[in-house]
# Entry
Amino acid sequence: MNVRDAFLENERNTLSEYACLTSASRGRDHEYVPCEVRTEFQRDRDRILHSQSFRRLMNKTQVFLAPSGDHYRTRMTHTLEVTQIARIIARSLRLNEDLTEAAALGHDIGHTPFGHAGEYAMQECYDKEFTHYKQSIRVVEKLEHNGKGLNLTWEVRDGIANHTGSHRAATLEGLIVKYADRIAYINHDIDDACRAEILSAEDIPAHLREILGETHSKRINTMVSSIIKASTDKNDIIMEPVVQAATDELRAFLFERVYRNPVAKGEEVKARQMLIRLFEHYVKNPHKLPKLYRDNCEVDGVERCVCDFISGMTDRYAIELYSELYIPKVWRGPKE
# Structure
């Protein structure tokens, strides 16, 4: 028995009856040679972690656009926090931790620069149906690995595609990622808003603090513990009703006080206009696209490929590229 087979046997012996066993995976779209020391979900985790798109998350906005402070969350740190929360829940419920981790690491891999401002820009200039989770699937299926895609398992792609909104993943592990995403951003966005001095902990309604906790760590612990208590020995991932209602109310509070706050979002209009102008420039000049996107134009169309290029940009790269194209440089003559 090799290492991979030992892992698979351990899953069969230890995981919940409701877990998605790696041996039961629907597999990959393309043929592959199995690894002797990793299961398929472990390989997916590693493929995502080592991808270029994952590395770019470190310079993509979470809430505060291109923050100058060192401690504000980025799309990368958000993803890591989601992954840690998801793993704890999966482990506690004896579900497949490897599948959960892979889907969590990949859930925002196709996110646009400047957070949801970039998403709105692509909806305006490219397709009103554009979403970051659909783009994440396009990244892992087509754009990564020099256009070959990452060839991820069906279950990991399902978890990525269904981590938000009314979507429901086919596995409990995928459902965990959806909850972990919300738990992470609600709490770290409060932390960042307090750091930016647009919110204080005392601004959170008293009854929500009483139910969920007074501090960042206590709120996360309350939410995570509630999911574990409510979901144990069930073929579903749910939260206790009282905690769920308080979590939903806290999220609504953040939309009112943070997500629509002009201090946090004051630059979004500029970011959207900048991305739209970049989109228009490359649609008119597709020959200036990088080779991967330029080569895809014949198959997918120019606008689709320009959207792919812009969606993959970091905040910093988008700003630098825009400056290079549209901001005149100061001319300096010879030294006298």
